[in-house]
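Ticket #4471: structure output looks truncated?

Reporter: J.K.
Steps to reproduce: submitted the chain below (438 residues) through the standard prediction queue, then opened the result file.
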Amino acid sequence: MPTRGVRGATTVDENTSEAILKETRRLLALLIHFNGIQPEDVASLIFSTTRDLTAEYPALAARQLGWLDTALLCGHEMDVPGGMPRCIRVLINWNTDTKPHDIVHVYLRGARNLRPDKADLPLAPVDDLEGWIQQQVDHWQDQKSARKEKRMKVIAFQGEHGAYSEQAVRQHFGQEVITLPCHAFEGIFGAIESGEADYGVLPVENSSAGSINRAFDLLLDHDLRVWGEILLRVRHNLLAPPGTTLDQIHSVRSHPQALAQCERWLSQRNLKAVTWYDTAGSAKELAASPEPGVAAIASSLASETYGLEVLAAGIEDLSWNYTRFFVIGRGDAPVSAKAKTSLVFAVSHDPGSLYHCLGEFATRGINLTKIESRPRRNRPWHYVFYLDFEGHWQDPTCQQALVGLLARAAFVKLLGSYPAAEIPAMNGEGGQSELLQI
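Returned output as attached by the reporter:
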């Protein structure tokens, strides 16, 4: 789609925020109205003012109109002999198929002298300029919200396409989402905070390997909230290029943890384990550069993604192998009936301090589903505690417990209340399981 330039200019009577904001709002509102511009179709806005005006005010007016995600540039013009005083100019770089001769450029007040061929436009289609502008802002925001609901959500995850994290995304959100791979956990948080992704899926715990400490550290460092949890049954598969047979394999690549979880199966077949940076990455590179006798351990999604065959499925040594993921995003999740709450807190270095903090939950009959300590990075030999409990923080009993915790703890950070996942329950021999609704 081509980018067109939409130009406008106006003047003000004095260098005050009130005067500049009012005239800039009017200028932008008319440019948008007469051209049918939608804020999300604007690549950038460039403002310039003469040196007798404060350059930042016009950009502030654009933000007030709801142009929150648009790149803005503002600055002073170079002095021109005989130039117009107290003038504001704007250039809107607009992604549109509109023909150049159909674009309406707006020149108001004294700025009409810059383009004598352009007649001054009316203040607005109605007499109440400020009221009309607010109606336009509300309309733009409603349209933006409606389009956001209709468009496919973007979900960030760590790893290559085909990773178990992406499999967790599909399990929770379904197929109608766009997945965004990130090199590291930090990338998930950055993508959400920048608006590149709507949510992220972050692995926090494995049923056999324990908690993923880096994930919890990042939850403490950032202001995102937990919107949900996912329990993914991790099934390791031996993948190879089409036409390969199991008896031809002598070496197997994968992430060290995946290799460790399949150690018995590999040893029984005298297969050499080769450490790779990632499960899906090992499948991706094997598909791109096949080597005779080499296979990879990865998810079934990786086999579909990279066109590899599954030579053996479910080769993990322990069938009870689940990874717990948090769904993270901005703001708070909607209130759910069967909720779980996660938080982090620290206690004073006094006898009984942790006992009394936990007592706030015990005395109210609130069930704790997880508690784990981590070193407090800014205070050696002090610790923070990650806690999960059943219930929503807005439930009256839970609120009372949190008030009591706040009174006793050195600090408390709520990570979020969210719908509790279904917990798989062991049933019978051989590691068979069924899903138990909690």
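Triage note (M.O.): checked the attachment and the full token line is present. The first strand starts at residue 3 and ends at 11.
Status: closed, working as intended.
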